[in-house]
Input
Amino acid sequence: MLRQTFLWLSHRQGIFRFVRNNRLARRFANRFVAGETIDSALVAVRALNAKRITATLDLLGESVSRADEARATAAHYVELLDRIAAEGLDANVSVKLTAMGQDISDTLCIENITQVLERARQHRTFVRLDMEGSAYTERTLQLFEEHLFARFPEEVGIVLQSYLRRTPADVANAIDIQCRVRLCKGAYKEPATIAFPEKRDVDATYVACMHRLMSEGKYPGLATHDEAIIEQAKQYAREQGISQDRYEFQMLYGVRRDLQELLVREGYRMRVYVPYGTQWYPYLLRRLAERPANLAFMTASIMKEQFAKRR
Ligand SMILES: Cc1cc2nc3c(=O)[nH]c(=O)nc-3n(C[C@H](O)[C@H](O)[C@H](O)COP(=O)(O)OP(=O)(O)OC[C@H]3O[C@@H](n4cnc5c(N)ncnc54)[C@H](O)[C@@H]3O)c2cc1C
Output
């Protein structure tokens, strides 16, 4: 119930305008979002790199409805790639195709993402296409395969979500064409006709897809904070003789920092997804939907800080 409420709230722009002006709400956001500018995001990346954690940077913002906004977002990513390279940081970028203009036209979207990919190639880095709600799954995968992967096989990869019933077939296809996949459970509200309603099915599909990608895929990103699944990944790698440099674990900024650091100490590769930008509201609400206890956790830590200041 709480999860549905947070997901519903994530679409209410009026409420966002209200919370953006609220100091307390902005402090909530700071736990999961690395500020509103490139500079603040790069500070976060530098701190992660110092702990031997790599990053993928995401400029928050989805469902762009004007061509000039989509072009400005593409230009922002190009600048971001230049800044990452100039500052010698170990980070790539994650991009949503709706932010590149997918809702306006495929031509505009391809033009914009191509600019980003060309710059990524120049800097020998990588662009991950985030996966959004199911209305975009087929379109995103089609656009990826038909227009981007053929031209940029080393620079672009996709995300597949284990809550979708179609995902094992998409994993098989990704293995056939040998493209890079980030595997996650999925963060959007989806109907039972296309997505598993039960967590145990989402988890079982995750593990089955993870095993296939680890054995036969191209450098998969295992994006999860689920300790049981992470244990299964490690065990599978040991049993199959899959070395630690053939895959990486990925987690979200501000989530399970203890586990991120532990995995690095154990010699595993860890990449953290670092979101930043002014449009942090839907992202934050999705994180609260995943774990409503975060609300209590963040309230408690803010109150503790306030209390300490007064003393
Ligand atoms: C690097 C990365 C990239 C992602 N990219 C996408 C994408 O492109 N598209 C998409 O739909 N989804 C994406 N996601 C989100 C993902 O789909 C899940 O919604 C999210 O990761 C929670 O699932 P989980 O695998 O951690 O497992 P869960 O079963 O949800 O959680 C397992 C445990 O992890 C911890 N945990 C999980 N979430 C949180 C949280 N928010 N705060 C605190 N603790 C938490 C809790 O201890 C929980 O018990 C991404 C996730 C990661 C890590």
